[in-house]
Specification:
11-stranded mixed β-sheet; Amidase signature (AS) enzymes
C-alpha cells in the first residue's frame, strides 16, 4: 500500500510485526495527512509530533534488535483530549482546563503504551464531553470529512472525524449518552462502548458517575476487538471496574452468524425516522440474514421509561461534577452547555433516586423483552440523516434545540442500561453522509456484538470507503 496512513489498526500492527513497514514511516504518513487536511477538518487540539516520532524510532530499534512486537506495536493513535497523561495539558475541550496538567496517566493510556501504540497527541471534542454534535466554542467546531458543512457527531468529534479522514488508525473516545457511537455513525467508522465497568475510567475526565464509558473508534470491528482486548479489565485504581475476565475478542470473529438471533425493537428507535435511514437499516438486516442470522421484530415497552430516566441521571450527575466550576466560572462555559447544566440543578433529588432505583428492574425487563431467545438487538444509530453544523447550533438559534438533542435519542438508552453496543457504517444517505447500524448485546457480551459487526463488514465495504477532503 502506497499510503501507510490508510492502514487499519490490525493492518498496521501486522505490517510492523512482519517488517513490512516501520513505525516511523507510518507515523510520518499520518502526520503528512494531518498537515494536508486537518486545517479543514479541525480534529486535532495538540499534535505531539516529535514525541510520536521519538516513540516510533524507539519501537523500530527494538524491533530490529529482536524484541517481540505487542498487539498494537507501531500503530499511530490519537485520543480525545480528556485522557490524562502526567505533565501533559488536557483541556477537556474547555476554557476552564485550558492549562490543566494532570499528575497521573490514565490506565487505558498505560495499557495502550504497553501494547506498543504510538500516541500522537490529543483531539478536539465537545466542551467537557457534553454535546452530541461536535460544536466547540473554544477550539472551533469539528467538521465532517465527508462534507465539511455537516456535523461530526459528539462528543468524541475529533476521534470520529480523524479516524474517518485517516489521520491515524484509531482513537479513544468516551460515551455517556452516545459520544462514541454518534461520531462513529456520522463519520462512517466503527465505535464501541463496552458494558458499564468493563474499561477503567481512572485518569479520565468524568461527566457522569454511573454512565461514563471508555472505548475506541476504529475503521473495523476487528480493529475495535483488538483495542478492546488491550484496554478492558479490572483496574485497582478504579473501584467501579469489573473483575470479570477479558476474552480475546478478536479470536471470536469467525464471520459465521448461523444460529444468531437478532431482535429489532418496534418501539422508540424508529419514531420519526427518516426514510433513507430506515432503508439503509433494513438493507443491513438483509446482509445479516444472508450471513445466517434470523431477525425478529419485538415489543419493548420498557423503552419509554428508560428514555425518561436516562436524561434525569445524566443531567444530575453532570451538574454535580461541575457544581464548583459553575459557581466560580459560569462565564467560561459555552452558552449551550450552561443551558444544559443549569437544568440539572432543577431536578429534585427524589426523581434522581427514582431513576437510579429503577435501573436494575428496567435492565431485567429490557433483557426479558429483547434478549429472550435473541442474542443481539439491532437498531439505527441515528433516526435522522446527518444534519449540518448550522442546523444543530444552539448558540446560533435556540430553535435548533430539539434537533440537537434528537441526535442521541437512539444511543442514550444503552447508557442507562449499561449494555455493550457497537455502531458500524451501513450505507450513505441521499446527501452522501454515512448511516449507522447499532448492535447491542447482553452485559459483558461485547464479543457477540463485535462478531456480528465483523460478519457484516465481511460482506460490505462501507467501512473501507475513504472521504475526499477538499
Amino acid at each position: 500500500m502506497s499510503d501507510l496512513a490508510l492502514l487499519s489498526v490490525t493492518e498496521a500492527a501486522d505490517a510492523f510485526a512482519k517488517g513490512e513497514a516501520t513505525a516511523e514511516a507510518m507515523v510520518l504518513a499520518c502526520l503528512a495527512r494531518i498537515d494536508a487536511h486537518d486545517g479543514q477538518v479541525n480534529s486535532v487540539i495538540r499534535l505531539d509530533r516529535e514525541a510520536a516520532l521519538d516513540a516510533a524510532a524507539a519501537q523500530d530499534r527494538a524491533r530490529a534488535a529482536g524484541a517481540t512486537p505487542g498487539p498494537l506495536s507501531g500503530v499511530p493513535m490519537m485520543h480525545k483530549d480528556m485522557y490524562y497523561r502526567a505533565g501533559r495539558v488536557s483541556t477537556c475541550g474547555s476554557k476552564i482546563r485550558a492549562d490543566f496538567k494532570p499528575g497521573k496517566t490514565a490506565t487505558v493510556l498505560q495499557r495502550l503504551d504497553a501494547a506498543g501504540a504510538i500516541d500522537m497527541g490529543t483531539l478536539n471534542m465537545a466542551e467537557f464531553a457534553q454535546n452530541p454534535t461536535g460544536h466547540n466554542a473554544h477550539f472551533g467546531d469539528c467538521h465532517n470529512p465527508w462534507s465539511l458543512p455537516y456535523c461530526t457527531g459528539g462528543s468524541s468529534s475529533g476521534s470520529g472525524a480523524g479516524v474517518a479522514a485517516r489521520f491515524f488508525a484509531a482513537a479513544l473516545g468516551s460515551d455517556t449518552g452516545g459520544s462514541i457511537r454518534l461520531p462513529a455513525s456520522i463519520c462512517g467508522v466503527t465505535g464501541i462502548k463496552g458494558t458499564q465497568t468493563r474499561v477503567s475510567r481512572s485518569g479520565v475526565m468524568p461527566l457522569s458517575f454511573s454512565m461514563d464509558n471508555v472505548g475506541p473508534l476504529t475503521r473495523t470491528a476487528r480493529d475495535a476487538a483488538r483495542v478492546m482486548t488491550v484496554i478492558s479489565g479490572h483496574d485497582p485504581l478504579d473501584a467501579t471496574s469489573a473483575p470479570e475476565a477479558v476474552p480475546d475478542y478478536e479470536a471470536a470473529l469467525t464471520g459465521d452468524l448461523r444460529g444468531v438471533s437478532v431482535a429489532v425493537p418496534r418501539e422508540w428507535f424508529f419514531d420519526g425516522a427518516d426514510d433513507v435511514v430506515v432503508r439503509g437499516f433494513e438493507a443491513a438486516l438483509d446482509v445479516l440474514r444472508a450471513r445466517g442470522a434470523s431477525v425478529t421484530y419485538v415489543a419493548c415497552p420498557s423503552l419509554r421509561a428508560i428514555g425518561t430516566y436516562v436524561a434525569v441521571v445524566s443531567r444530575v450527575e453532570a451538574a454535580t461534577i461541575h457544581a464548583n466550576w459553575m459557581r466560580e466560572h459560569p462565564g467560561d462555559y459555552a452558552i449551550h452547555l450552561s443551558g444544559r447544566m443549569y437544568g440539572g440543578y432543577a431536578i429534585p433529588g427524589t426523581h434522581y433516586l427514582e431513576a437510579l432505583s429503577r435501573r436494575g428492574p428496567l435492565l431485567r425487563q429490557f433483557c426479558k423483552e429483547a434478549f429472550a431467545g435473541h442474542h443481539i438487538v439491532a437498531t439505527p444509530t441515528l433516526r435522522m440523516r446527518v444534519p449540518t453544523l448550522a442546523e444543530t447550533s444552539i448558540d446560533a438559534s435556540p430553535d435548533n434545540w430539539a434537533r440537537h438533542m434528537a441526535i442521541s435519542s437512539n444511543t442514550r438508552p444503552f447508557n442507562y442500561l449499561g449494555i455493550p453496543t457497537v455502531s458500524i457504517p451501513c450505507g450513505f444517505d441521499d446527501r452522501g453522509l454515512p448511516i449507522g447500524l447499532q448492535l447491542s448485546a447482553r452485559p459483558f457480551a461485547e464479543g457477540r456484538a463485535l462478531a456480528v459487526a465483523d460478519a457484516y463488514q465481511r460482506e460490505t465495504d462501507w467501512h473501507a470507503r475513504v472521504p475526499t477532503i477538499p
